[in-house]
Structures are given as C-alpha cells and as structure tokens.
Amino acid sequence: GMEVEISMDVKTDDDKIIMTGDINNVWPNYLTTTSNKGAYKTIHAVVKLPNDISSLKVYVETDGKSDLYVDNVTIKRVPLGNQVKFTFDANGQGTAPTALLINEGSYAYQVAPETVTGYDFGGWYKEADCTTPWDFAADVVTEPVTVYAKWTKNADPTPTPLPSNPTPSNTSTPVATPIGNNSVPGIYETTNAYRTVFGSDVKAFNVINTNLKKILVSGKKASYEFNDKDGNLAYSFTFNADNYDAKQALRNMKLDLTMGNAKDLSFNDGMLLSMSQTGKLAMETTLKVNVKDYFKSGDVVYVYKYNKDSKKLECIPNNKLTVNEKSYVSFAIKSGADYVILKAPAKKNEKLGFLAQVKYDKKITIDARRTMNHVFELPDMFEVVSSLNEFDADKNLATIGVTATYKSSNSKIVSIDEEGNIWALRKGKAKVAVTIKTSTGKTKKYVATVVVK
C-alpha cells in the first residue's frame, strides 16, 4: 500500500505527545515525542497503509491531564523518490526490527523491538551510548541512518497489597506497585481482566480512550476500582470486552461517583449516586456500589436515572436489583448522570418509561433549503438495529434494541433520512414521523409537523 504523511501542530503542558491510529481496527502507535511545553510543536508521522484499507482514524493524547490543542492537521501522500536505509540496532539486547527503506527527505516509522525480560525499552537514539534521542516526529531522513535501542534494567520491587484487597489469585500479575490510600493506583493483570485500584485519596480518574481500547481488544475486561478509607471497595466501573464495538470510536471519560441521600432530590428511602461525567458514555459499563449505609443484605431495590430537566426518574433496563451479602449492588449504565436507588418502585407520576424518553418538538419551523439533524432525539439506552433479531439482550444489559422507521407525508416539501435528519426542500407544510419498535415488545409512533418558510 501507499505511504501517507500525517502532520499537525500540537500544544500541551504535559511532557509527551502520543499519536496512535486505527487502521481496519488495528491500533499501531505511530509515535511518542516530547512536547514544547506551553507552545505548539509540529509533529509528523509516516504511515504505510495496507492495500485493503477501509478506514483510517488518528488519535492524539498526552501522558498527563493538561489541556491538549491540535491545529493544522494534514494528511498527504508521500511521493516516490530516492530511498535510503534506516537501520535499527538492538544494542546488545533482544532482536532489532527489520530495517526500513525511507524516501529521502521523509520521516521514519516508530518501531519497537522485541521485549526483553528484566529490561525496559527507553527509545531509539542516534548514538550507541544513547545520548541523543531520534525524534520520529521531527527528524528528517536524508541519508542512511542507524538508531540504537536504549535499555534500562528493571528494579524488582516487592508489591505492597492494598488494605483488605489482596492480589486476586496466583494467575494475577501485579504490573504496578499498589500503594495504600494515596494517589498512586495499584494495577493487577489476570488472564481475563486488567484492574486499576485507587486508594481513598483518589476521587476521580480520566480514562484515555486509546488505553481502554488496547485492554478491550486484548479480550480482557477493564475495571477501575475506588476504595474507601478502610481499604474496602466503595465503587467500581467495569468495561467488558464483549460490549466493545470496534466500529464505534471511544471517547475519553471521567470516572467518579459521589454518594448521598435521595432526599436531596425529594425521593424518600433511597440513595443518590452522582457522576460529574454527563451524557452518553463511550460504551456500556457496569457500576458496582457499596450501599451499606442505606440498604441491608437481601433488600430488593430499584435504580433509575434522574432527569434534571423534567425532575423525573427515567427507567433503565434491568433496574430491579438485590443487595448481595457484602452490601453491594451492580447494574449496567450507558450514560453519565445522577442515579437514584429506591426501596420501592417509583410512583407512576415520578417516572418516565422507555418510550416516554424520546424527545422531539411537535411543531418545527425551518427555512427552505435548510437541514435539521435528529429531529427525534432517542435516549442513550436505545440501540438502533436493522432487525430486532440481531439484538443480544443478554450481552447488552444497559441497552434496549430498537428499530426506527422514518417517513415524511410529503417528501417534495420535507425529506427525512434513516437517521432522522430532515431537509427542507420548498415552502409548505408536511409531517414527519418515526415508528419505534423495541426489543421489549413495545411500539410507538411519534409525529412532528414541519413548516417550511
């Protein structure tokens, strides 16, 4: 396949800039480079595209939490020209990658050598004594080049277990030293899970999309666990590989939870769970919460999503729960929001059923030759499918499968596509409608009148 050069200007106060990609659902790491702290740095990466490429996505992130600014993004084909050899030297450890042929005046790909037991790879350098790093984002190849691997011998720390949270099993490998109740997380990897465990000082964690994606693509579930001051689990968010859809781009997420009394929202006998992240999450997650201060083991409880605008409780799938013997409940969610757990089902006038959560204006006025996107706003928990037979309710616990059929009463005045976007073609009046059928066996039709001026 052909080669393309990806260039952009990036500014951050963090130390490093990381560019990764998504080519046909494979995520190579294109480059890692130091930033010009507080100032823009122009970075480049040359990518060789496969012959069967169907999509290319590029992601930029940093190694910290500072703001990231990206400008002047360009992707252009690398013209054929004189080629020079770019050689990797493993510098006495492991096996070096195969040498590259790089177009003269272009940039080399960033390639990692094979891992070496007992050593950490520290990048590629211009000299064998590893004095000057080769900057894959900026250094241009104008003549034959050899770069040398830098290796640092591993320390062998003895992991300190978190209070009341031992290493999961002999199949679990600590990949970072867990440290009690301060801000450094403990990280454990097992054959089917990657656990990040925080002490009580940590109140929130920003999940970087590319890091989460790598865990899920490996087939493992990713769990982010927050302990209380006694070292016991307060709450956790778990993302399952089975729920990951490679066709959907993951977004960064902030995971946190504040627990309080549902009386704050005028609901008695209940618990309030508040997330600062709002709106649709990158994917479904299972929220596990210690509810011992509000309910006892064996209690049957009901969880709802709170709508701040209507001040009503929105029904979510699988909302009837039983508090387990350790005083935890677990339920799946698709949205960052406030959630209310009650001892009894919400009253009819307090809640909104699944189909009552579709939002739309019954009358719309729009100028001719204008468009309007998503006239009918479906709730986050709805997953639109072409056939309800393809929806797996056992796997998608936070989701209702739906089919959505859109129609216009006069397509010469207003047309509507399969996603609910309308086009006002000429002056007049028409009705647009959507018929929703759910995997729970319900059907409802919604109609809006569109006036085109």
Walkthrough of the structure:
With 453 residues, this protein is mostly beta strands. 2% of the residues lie in helices and 47% in strands. The protein is built from 1 helix and 32 strands. Strands 11, 12, 13, 15, 16, 18, 19, 20, 21, 22, 23 and 24 form a 12-stranded mixed β-sheet that branches. A hairpin with an 8-residue loop joins strand 18 and strand 19 (270-290).
Q: Shape, please?
A: globular
Radius of gyration: 27 Å
| Total DSSP E strands | 32
Mean pLDDT: 85
Regions with pLDDT < 50 over 5+ consecutive residues? Answer: 156-182
The largest sheet, given as strand count, sense and whether it forms a barrel, is:
12 strands, mixed
Distance between the termini: 50 Å
Number of helices: 1
User: How much of the polypeptide forms β-strand, as a percent range?
Assistant: over 45%
Question: What structural class is derived from the secondary structure elements?
Answer: mainly beta
Q: Helicity level, as a percent range? A: under 10%
Key terms for this structure?
2% helix; 5-stranded mixed β-sheet; mainly beta; 12-stranded mixed β-sheet; 453 residues
Write the layout of secondary structure elements.
Elements: E1 3-12, E2 16-23, E3 29-34, E4 41-48, E5 56-62, E6 68-77, E7 83-89, E8 100-103, E9 119-125, E10 145-153, E11 173-176, E12 186-189, E13 193-198, E14 204-207, H1 209-217, E15 221-227, E16 233-239, E17 253-256, E18 258-261, E19 270-290, E20 300-307, E21 312-314, E22 320-322, E23 328-342, E24 351-352, E25 363-366, E26 371-372, E27 382-384, E28 400-408, E29 414-416, E30 422-424, E31 428-438, E32 443-452
